Amino acid sequence: xxxxxxxxxxxxxxxxxxxxxxxxxxxxxxxxxxxxxxxxxxxxxxxxxxxxxxxxxxxxxxxxxxxxxxxxxxxxxxxxxxxxxxxxxxxxxxxxxxxxxxxxxxxxxxxxxxxxxxxxxxxxxxxxxxxxxxxxxxxxxxxxxxxxxxxx
Length: 152
Prior knowledge:
It contains 3 helices and 6 strands; from the N terminus they run ααββαββββ. It is of the alpha+beta class. Helix content is 36%, strand content 45%.
């Protein structure tokens, strides 16, 4: 009868290691998707950016109303003529995977060109709630705001 508790403890140990590995691989996948987002932003590819969101995703831009749905999000990320992003870097501080959702927060840096004049870099903070869809992750909620500029 002592075999049963050993088997249960062994199974729990293996499951804990697998869950830890899954969380690590999920975190790596989310970090890779964040890099894809930045790359698409620099390319000016609003469609690719929007595809990273759930169909009912919501963004919460600074000093703006919430914007819901992939098509509305695509329109938001479409830059007007004469504007482009030349640098966008997301630096996650923490990614926590919890079943079907993951919680990601960190900082970003952005720079660009507006009507031929360079601007930035500007820095800020973000919070993203990711949602698992099948074997992949999509952005479900996305909020950001400006951060303090570094001292000069």
